[in-house]
Amino acid sequence: MKCASILHSKGFDYLVSERQSCAGGHVANWSMLFPDGRESSLLIGPIYESVDSSKILKGEEVLSIKKNSNGKYDSVLSSGKIITSDSVIVASGFSLFDATKKEEYGYGLFEGVITNADLESWFKGAGDIAIDSPSKIGFLHCVGSRDAKAGNTQCSKVCCITAVKQAIRIKERFPKAQVYSFYMDLRMFGRGYEDLYLEAQSKWGIRFIRGRISEVSQNRDKQLVIKAEDTLSSRPVKLTLDLLVLMSGMAPDSSNNNLFLDTGIGLGKDGFLLPNDIMDKPGTTTLEGIFAAGAVNGPRTIPDLIGECHAACNNVEIFLKKTHPDG
Amino acid sequence: MVDFGFGILEEQKIDLDKAENSLFRSLANSRPEILTCIGCGSCTATCSAGVFTICGFRPAILMLERGMEHDGLSMVKSCILCGKCSLVCPRGINTRGILMDIHNLTLGKV
Fold this sequence. Notes:
Chain A is α/β, with parallel strands linked by helices.
């Protein structure tokens, strides 16, 4: 949608195929965004308003893209319709890792085990999760990220800071609760992230424990009992929790497998789009005329993806000037 | 010359210049995946023998790498080769296989 907004401001003709019934992707389901805490609607709203709504095809997913004999691109939609264009920007995003795959954490089995996405919908007042004044809350980082067993070896990039943000927000709602964060590494790479981590430690008293939870069980009072190793003291840790939040990571979307079959654009070992030039050519793919922005290229933060949208749109402009010198 | 006492206690020191980690190197030679450990501790948290004794794959491997062979081996002495550590390892390291190798390489030495 951001790409459409940029193309609109540049005066290009465009059509957006949006597979969901509303725009905004995963961001729309998220509550306050890190690091400045703004509501996601404040980000998405202005973008949405700057796009011609008659050019958004909602509930339409692109199934495949193919170059036709005129050198243009045919995008086949789920309704069977075919859109022909001079150029295509793919921004099909990622899938949230399905936490039920990590059976040892008990998601879907134990009531008190939820995901980061469930917590965000609870923050927004939506969803069907009931959180009833928990006194001990745990966050578990790297669920389905950096995990060969889950088939995702990549770091999802955003979960470390998301967990810190969510830990602070839940502490605001339940000030008496003790919040724990179980991590393998804390990757606070972005501007303002380290400050938020510092705030979580100093202002909110969140306890960070370096060790990955190995299993979750339930006691007779239906509380969660977790096991981990506190790797810094080399001691096994046992902890009883009322609520455990699993930080589900970003997995490649299953649509990637078919979407690019006819284009010759390959996928990396991680299932995300193979980069054209990971340093120098953001927003491009290995095929001229097809561009890509956002998490289809791998885990992205929102500023990453917005930057990439600008890059992709600039590259579209350059490409069209080259192929249509007369405008 | 004033001695400010900035030395490290000899018995506390890991002297990487002198660390003797030939066992770790030979393990890494046959199973290079051992080098990919991120030290998350899942193996040690889930260890069946660790419930009753001091047993843990993560600290053991770290000690072998740092040249504290005796301490490292003592941490896996009570391993019962149940293989739970292999199930939880996020790097997919064949921890049970490595423990079996340690056993074979040190047979009669511990």
